[in-house]
TrEMBL record:
Organism: Extremus antarcticus
Keywords from the named record: FAD, Flavoprotein, Oxidoreductase
Keyword Oxidoreductase listed: yes
Protein name: Acyl-CoA dehydrogenase
UniProt cross-references to InterPro entries, sorted A to Z: Acyl-CoA_dehydrogenase, Acyl-CoA_Oxase/DH_mid-dom_sf, AcylCo_DH-like_C, AcylCo_DH/oxidase_C, AcylCoA_DH/ox_N, AcylCoA_DH/ox_N_sf, AcylCoA_DH/oxidase_NM_dom_sf
Cofactor: FAD
GO BP terms in the entry: fatty acid beta-oxidation using acyl-CoA dehydrogenase
GO CC aspect terms: cytoplasm
MF-aspect GO terms: acyl-CoA dehydrogenase activity; flavin adenine dinucleotide binding
Length: 457
């Protein structure tokens, strides 16, 4: 049963949640959202400079900052761990719907690493859902449970540098049986992305590779396996910066597999079922990315409001916010933010009501529209801060980089647009029938009213 709306109106955590969404929040979800808001406002946002300082200590760049470790332990004790887990996890799940978790994710997103303090960060959220849904009991005990308990982190390895990254059927990293022992597999190929192997808390990679290149069905050629990071034959060539940032301590890497040998028991679900697994993994994760993006963009907007009313900054004797161009700029950003939130919440609600598959269009809509809109808004906020806005004095450069990166994460925008466009074109025959009916009725009305018939088709 939801709470009366008037009970939520005065709490900042609900100020931007539309009434229709508020009505769908359970009492437990309301309390959880309040706790997440308090956590971010008092524990995480004020600690940003501390994390930066700890990361920059000599020899600590690829080690989890101590403040993150302490916050993770505290969040676990306060019941703020693994909030993303769907109800299918049973007792481990907090029981939030996609819509309810979306409200939490936006608040977490106000700081890039905020979700990590609650074990709700990418790629682990998607990986945990994947393992819970597709792994066998032994795999869950060995790999899933340590991540759920916060004892290690996982990575996802799919993208390759030598093929078109927008077409996953071309993935060419090879997975073959060891000719000396069929109980083992050999991996050979190159991969991009996946957390840096230097991250001390990283435990393993979930890898997608080609195991049956001659299968006439391109969707059955690939297999998903678990690769421990200390597997012989697995080498990280280098850290991949994103727009110049190394994103330590997790980062991104370029990897080379040379006869990397793993047990065949590390195959998830079965050979040739990688695409089935990938599609089951990506839906909710795209929504999580979008809501976190909205959270950080709201924070960028707040900084723009402060700048617009800063009495120390008065070009030509006026506050920055007194110029008509900036008043309109702020209004446009506000409208865009609120519109994007509705788009993502609609996708989350659709998944709750009809399932992930039925929500495919709404998920794609969010994935396409939100990163671009957020990048544009952050760019405007950066512009309002002048030269200082593009420096480390403000969080805008990292915020913008994350928004820009998400346009590629979990599939490039162009691929999603292509899919949406193809789906729309399939509707054309039915639409034509509808318009043909207009035309027939128009002819009937012409005869009835004695009006000269003119074709408009």
């Amino acid at each position: 049963m939801s709470l009366p709306l008037e009970n939520l109106d005065d709490h900042p955590a609900f100020s931007r949640i539309p009434p229709w969404a508020q009505q769908k929040l359970s009492p437990k979800a309301v309390e959880t959202i309040k706790k997440v808001h308090h956590w971010m406002e008092t524990e995480v946002i004020p600690a940003e400079p501390i994390l930066k300082a700890q990361l920059n200590q000599e020899g600590r760049r690829w080690k989890k900052p101590q403040i993150v470790r302490e916050l993770r332990e505290k969040a676990k004790k306060e019941g703020l761990f693994n909030l993303f887990l769907p109800k299918t996890f049973g007792d481990l799940s907090p029981g939030l719907t996609n819509l309810e978790y979306a409200c939490c994710a936006e608040i977490m997103g106000r700081v890039y690493w905020g979700a990590m303090t609650m074990n709700c960060h990418a790629p682990d959220t998607g990986n945990m859902e994947l393992m819970a849904k597709y792994c066998n009991a032994a795999q869950k005990e060995q790999y899933l449970m340590p991540v759920l308990r916060g004892e290690c982190f996982s990575a996802y390895s799919m993208t390759e540098p030598d093929v078109a990254s927008s077409d996953a059927t071309t993935i060419n990293c090879r997975l073959t049986r060891d000719p000396q022992d069929s109980n083992y597999l050999l991996i050979n190929g190159r991969k991009l992305y996946g957390n840096c192997i230097w991250e001390e808390d990283l435990g393993f990679y979930i890898l997608m590779a080609c195991s049956d290149p001659d299968n006439p069905n391109p969707w059955k050629r690939h297999t998903t396996v678990i690769v421990p990071k200390d597997t012989p034959g697995l080498k990280m060539v280098r850290n991949l910066t994103v727009m110049g940032y190394d994103w330590a301590p997790e980062g991104h890497g370029e990897f080379l597999y040379t006869n990397a040998r793993i047990p065949a028991s590390n195959i998830i679900l079965g050979e040739g079922r990688a695409f089935e697994i990938a599609q089951g993994r990506l839906g909710p994760g795209r929504i999580h990315h979008c809501m976190r993006l909205l959270g950080q963009t709201e924070r960028a907007y707040e900084l723009a409001l402060i700048r617009a009313t800063d009495t120390r900054k008065k070009p030509r004797g006026k506050l920055i916010g007194e110029f008509d161009s900036n008043i309109e700029r702020l209004a446009t950003m506000r409208l865009q933010l609120d519109a994007m939130r509705l788009v993502v919440m609609n996708a989350a609600d659709t998944m709750d009501l009809k399932g992930n598959k039925a929500g495919r269009y709404a998920i794609a809509q969010s994935k396409i529209m939100v990163p671009q809109a957020c990048a544009d808004i952050i760019d405007e906020c950066m512009q309002m801060h002048g030269g200082a806005g593009v420096t480390q004095l403000y969080p805008f450069p990292e915020m913008w980089t994350y928004a820009r990166f998400v346009r590629l994460a979990d599939g490039p925008d162009a691929a999603h647009r292509h899919q949406v466009g193809r789906d729309e074109l399939k509707k054309a025959p039915k639409v034509k029938e509808q318009h043909d009916a207009y035309h027939r009725r128009y002819k009937e009305l012409c005869e009835k009213w004695g009006v000269a018939y003119e074709s408009f088709l």
